[in-house]
Design a protein that fits this description.
With 106 residues, this protein is α+β, with helices and mostly antiparallel strands. 53% of the residues lie in helices and 13% in strands. The chain is flat. The longest helix is centred in the C-terminal third of the chain and has 22 residues.
Length: 106
């Protein structure tokens, strides 16, 4: 079961910044439910889309187009994917909520 645990950050007199940055402090860390044993399944249309994307990426790796702008496109896609992941992580309050969300979709 997910939980919050209290941790402490040790003081570091050599740390850069002001006095507050060098002090020790206590904080609460979120420990999510284990996800290794989850048996998740994707709907057929999602699995099909993943498979098509996988084949397309494989085809690009085997025979890359001669475009200099692909690196720029790759950076933009990676930045967009990271943005989506961060937003998704903020929306989820805990691993249990994410699991319930997935189960509700089925």
């Amino acid at each position: 079961m997910s939980r919050l645990v209290t941790r402490s950050w040790p003081a570091d007199p050599a740390a850069p910044g002001g006095r507050a940055e060098r002090r020790s402090f206590r904080y609460q860390a979120f420990v999510p439910d284990p996800v290794a044993d989850l048996q998740l399944s994707l709907p057929g249309d999602v699995a099909g889309a993943v498979s098509r994307a996988e084949r397309a990426v494989d085809a690009l790796n085997r025979d890359p187009p001669a475009l200099a702008s692909l690196e720029v496109l790759a950076r933009r896609l990676l930045r967009w994917a990271c943005f989506k992941v961060r937003n998704r992580a903020r929306e989820s309050a805990s691993a249990r909520c994410r699991l319930l969300h997935v189960l509700r979709r089925q």
